[in-house]
Structures are given as structure tokens and as C-alpha cells.
Design a protein that fits this description.
alpha+beta; Alpha-Beta Plaits; six-stranded mixed beta sheet; 6 strands
Length: 135
Amino acid sequence: MTPEQRLNTVKDNLKQIVGIHHVTRNYSDLDTEMDKHERIYAVLSSGFPQFGSLYDTEDEVHNFMIVAQQLVNESTTGEQKEAIEFSMLEVIKELVAQDGEANEPLNLELVSARTSRQMDPIHAWVLFELRFNDL
């Protein structure tokens, strides 16, 4: 399976989990589609696959990211945004767990999750860094 096929599979699997929310492979949807959807998840490649340690192995590691974003009003408290962001984290953890239970897993690994409420007062958002191991 190519990296693009794997990313599309992640998008499809994520769509099954989140149902009503918008899931895309297009970064610009975070701006252009925000007024049409309560929450958006963008599945994006974050670079080309890297090969195993000094080419000693044929293993590849391909990093990618999922940006989860929800529009909130300026009166939303930090505590409320944090609750939204933790709910986004639970969705991504479920995605990774379901992959681990699948017969042909993508070998998803959640590497990190970052947010910054100070940078964006009208969005609750999380940048998830993930990877495929052993492409």
C-alpha cells in the first residue's frame, strides 16, 4: 500500500469514528469549511517516508499529522476548550486502538499532541503527530 493509500485509509477509518464531523485530506478546508461543520479533522502527510537506521533495514517510517479544529466563541473558557481538545484526543486514541485490533493494521503510532489556546482564541484545536511503522 502506498503512503497516499494509507493516508486515505486513515481518513476513511477516522470518518467511521467521527460520523457527523468533516474529515478531509485538504489543509485549506480548515479555513474554507469551518463555517459549515462543527469540527474538522484534516489528515495530512508531514514529509516523505524515512528508511530504517542508516539503510540497515528495509523498514520505513512515514510521519503524518491530523489537525483537529472546532470553532468556538470568544467567551469559551480555557477549561471548556480543554474539554473539547481532550475529546479530540480520545477520537485519535480510538483510531489508533482500532488499527491495532484490525486484521491488517496500518501500524499507527501516536507520537505527540500539541495545542496552544493563546495563539487562537476562537478555535479549539490539536495537532496530532502520528506515524506508520514498517510500511
